Predict the structure.
Amino acid sequence: MIRSLQLFWLILERLHLKKFLFVFLLWYVIACVLLWILDPGITTLADGFWFGFILVTTIGFGDFTVTTLPARIVAGILGLYGDLVITFLTGAITSWFFEKFQAFRGHSVGAFVTQLEHMDELSDEELQQVADKAKALRAQKEAGKQTSA
């Protein structure tokens, strides 16, 4: 389970989504507070966060609607940003599943890169496996050059 989370975190880093998600969470909090302040129909801060959640996840129960123009602008930006987050997270999760499948088959690029990044922590056997994998990749690359020439 921990390796799976590490792999997902690595994918988020490679796709440069960590900063994007952090900024989204910050905007989410700010937007929910603004919605609570700007719209008279949202009477509590908890309702502001609930409305933000419903908006971002595109569920839309209809129990809250924004009525003022500034609240509508904030809600529109939050909704669009939420759509982007869902889209990018879907891509990251897909990449994670692909890497897990490749690891199952023994061809995971993510696992290979992680091993290269943490070579000082590998055992002698794991180092030999990395070296063998690098040699095999080099042989594939050179075989590809010969067939294309």
